[in-house]
Each structure stands twice: as structure tokens, then as C-alpha cells.
Amino acid sequence: MRLIIQDNHKLTSKWVANYIARKINLAEPTAEKPFVMGLPTGSSPIGTYCELILLYEKGKVSFRHVVTFNMDEYVGIPKDHPQSYHTFMWNNLFSKIDILPENVNILNGNALDIKAECQAYEDKIQAIGGIDLFLGGIGPDGHLAFNEPGSSLASRTRDKELNYDTKVANSRFFENDISKVPNSSLTVGIATVMAAREVVIIVNGYNKALALQHAVEEGVNHMWTISALQLHPRGMIVCDEPATYELKVGTYKHFKDIEKNNLEPDNLLTSSLIW
Ligand code: GLP
């Protein structure tokens, strides 16, 4: 696993956006062979999405041949609810870039047949040839998408109940009223994310420090589902300084040292050796 430590969230966002843009450009995607991405919601990726929009506006990247699959969606709120992940994605990214609406895939939390909806999502990912790069964020308890502590590390797309911690964390988007936060979600599984050819996770802020410590220094454990990343051949976490506060000094110095030539975001846009 790679760990890229940036001074602050702004630089983290820039690094990840430049990395993604370079990956898309190196893939030279076409309609027949698109670049396929998994995408998260939440506050962690917003800065990255802003940077991607800037890169698009400057003509440095196009999303015309990019296909996306979002990680998760709430169950039981309308698609056009201000806090649905559909709304989030269109407001924060899709409406501001040249992605084709038919290339956007987001789980339907109002599907009558939840099982069929989830299976169709997995089938569609497989039919297109799998995901090239899965971008993610994590919750303070180390959950990836809505794979709460105790979720199977072999899980695929399915419905999941939200735990109390997640509802408290997400209540900030629902007028700080936990009773307004949906109780369940549809989410890709840990194995769905791990099947991607590459996984990039954004971790920022002190409230994620314990989760980062478990992800990087402890063993693979279903109570910290992000720790499954240790088993991925191309797993990378990009974090800011506050997120490193629970790491051992030696761990911090090790990753700072081995990545010292890879930390400058601007170099990524032209580098041929990005991984
Ligand atoms: C939700 C989402 C996750 C996201 C997490 C962290 O629970 N299902 O995919 O990573 O929130 O959100 P934030 O980035 O706002 O801290």
C-alpha cells in the first residue's frame, strides 16, 4: 500500500485530481474502451472534484469517455432529495464536466427489487470490463462506502443498515437531526472495490486519524473495513497531516521518505512514472 502524506487538504485534493487526470490521459480512453471509475460522495472528495473541474476547464482532461459507478446511495429518500448521492454528484461534479449522462451509474435506493438492483450493478461493472480506478473516502470508524464495521470483506453490492456512529456523522447534512438520516443504504461491497485495478482513498482531518492508523499499521480486520486495502496490489491512501496524528513516528517517516520524490502535485500531470 502506498501512503502519500500532504501538508493539508487542499494539496491532498490537488494531488489526487492531478493523479486521476494523468491516469485518464495515459489510458487514452475511447467510446469503445472507456476509462472506468468508482466514485465516492462525502466531504473528503469535494476538493478533488473542484480540482478536476478546474483541470477540465483548462482543457487538461476530458471525461467524455469516462464511465462512473458511484459507491453508494441512501435508501428511502427521493433521487432529487438535496442530500441524495445523486444530487450530490450532479451538483459537485457531473454538471460541471463533459461526462455523458448515460455513462453515469448510481445505485437506485428506491428500487422495488433491491436484490435485482444490486446484482444488475455488479453485472454492469463486469460487462464493461471492471473498474480501472476506484476513488474512495472513509468514515471515522474506517468504513468504506457504507461497509460498516463487521461487514464482510468478501462482500459485493447489497443493502446495508447504517450504524449509529455513521448516522451521527452524517446528521450534519440533515439539519443535525439524526432521525432525518436514512437508516439504510445500497452500497458496493468491499470485494467490489478490491476488484478494481487500482484503489485511491482520500483521508483528511484529525477525526479520521484512528481509522488511518488501523488501515496502515494494524492487521486486516472487518471492524475497520478500509484495512482490506492492504490486500490490494495497487492500493493507495492520500492523506493530510492531521490524519496522521495516530501513526507511529517511524511509520510517518517511512512513508514520507519512500514517497519523497512523488509528493509534488504539479509533477504528476506530465510524469510517465506515476505508478
Ligand atoms: C459516508 C459515505 C462514505 C464516505 C463517508 C465519509 O458514510 N457512505 O462513502 O466515505 O461518509 O464522509 P466524509 O468524507 O464526509 O467524512
Q: What are the main properties of this structure?
A:
275 residues; alpha/beta; seven-stranded parallel sheet; three-stranded antiparallel sheet; 9 helices; binds 2-amino-2-deoxy-6-O-phosphono-alpha-D-glucopyranose
Characterization of this structure:
- The chain is α/β, with parallel strands linked by helices and 275 residues long.
- It is built from 9 helices and 10 strands.
- The strands form 2 sheets. Strands 1-10-9-6-2-3-5 form a 7-stranded parallel β-sheet, with helices on both faces. It has a 3-stranded antiparallel β-sheet with strand order 4-8-7.
- The longest helix has 19 residues.
- It is globular.
- The mean pLDDT is 96.
- The chain binds 2-amino-2-deoxy-6-O-phosphono-alpha-D-glucopyranose (GLP).
- 2-amino-2-deoxy-6-O-phosphono-alpha-D-glucopyranose (GLP) binds next to α5.
